[in-house]
Amino acid sequence: MEPAVFRWAVIGPGSIAHRFAEALPAVPGAVLYAVASRDLGRAKEFAVRYGAPSAVDSYEAIASDPLVDAVYIATPHPMHCDPAILCLEHHKPVLVEKPMSVNAAFERRMVEASRRNRTFLMEAMWSRFLPATRHVRSLLASGRIGEPRLLTADFSYSDDPAASKRNFQPELAGGGLLDVGIYVMALASMVFGPRPVASSSFARIGETGVDEHAAMLLSYPGGGVASLTCGVRALGSGEARLAGTEGRIELKPFWRAEAVKLVTRAGEETTEFPFDGNGFEYEIREVMDCVRQGRLESLDYPLDESIAIMETMDGFRRAWGLVFPME
């Protein structure tokens, strides 16, 4: 029996939206139905490329279309809040690209709209739903590495400020923390919980006015410690290592891992988890499963966790004196 068709709409046909659209064929029943952009030409070009029958220049048209089953919001993160709330007010399930917004205050507005309208909302932390990541969670639950104690994780890349249109612009809430630091923060949250008991951080604020690289040290209930780095002007390893009392887990690159290395006193083993598509298909399946089951949020990445992670990152930026124009 063929799965029921699930019609997706995309708001904001930028680069990340292309990866989303490319993953849809790997999900049974998922189709791209509509695309919205304030630039109608961009919407039409995207729709033609991926076979969507509808292209519009109005977010309101997406929110009010009765054929839309869910909306993926892929605009820059300072522009997530209003279209997400618009869609939620029209009872359209929403997957919003990470970070969900610029700060926790905006995120709380979105979550409140989701709960008030009893409509599904999730931050698109695609790494959380990868088969390799799920395997890590099963290893932790089984006690294979004992008590998790030390996590080190990096997500840093080196970009050219002269060429970038986003990552070095305060007006678009650029910088390493919101762009890729959220990945290491979400990993630490998965391992130790979303609320550290203590934290400290250091960042370089570049001439462009954004955080170019940063290091964060966090302590969690139970004694776990995370040492995290991120940046947009440093070519990092993308590696994560989690050391426990009886072994360790290694992922490289952790944020799109297709293999998990387990090291214990008995030896080493590596398990492969190749993607079905480009990796985005797993978060797409999560949304579709939740919506079909009538859930208002994901059990594997709940909304309160998204807010807690952002609250911690808000604290880092306050310590750095980094405030964006839209705040």
Broad structural category: alpha/beta
Query: What gyration radius follows from the Cα positions, in whole Å?
Result: 20 Å
Shape: globular
Low-confidence stretches: none
Cα distance spanning the termini: 50 Å
- Give the assembly state of these chains: single chain
Number of strands: 14
Strand arrangement within the widest β-sheet reads 8-9-10-7-11-12-13-14
Tell me the fraction of residues in β-strands, as a range: 25-35%
Question: Major sheet: size, sense and barrel closure?
Answer: 8 strands, mixed
Proportion of residues in helical segments: 25-40%
Q: How many helices does DSSP assign?
A: 9
Topology order in helix (H) and strand (E) letters: EHEHEHEHEHEHEHEEEEEEEHH
Tell me, rounded to a whole number, the average pLDDT: 97
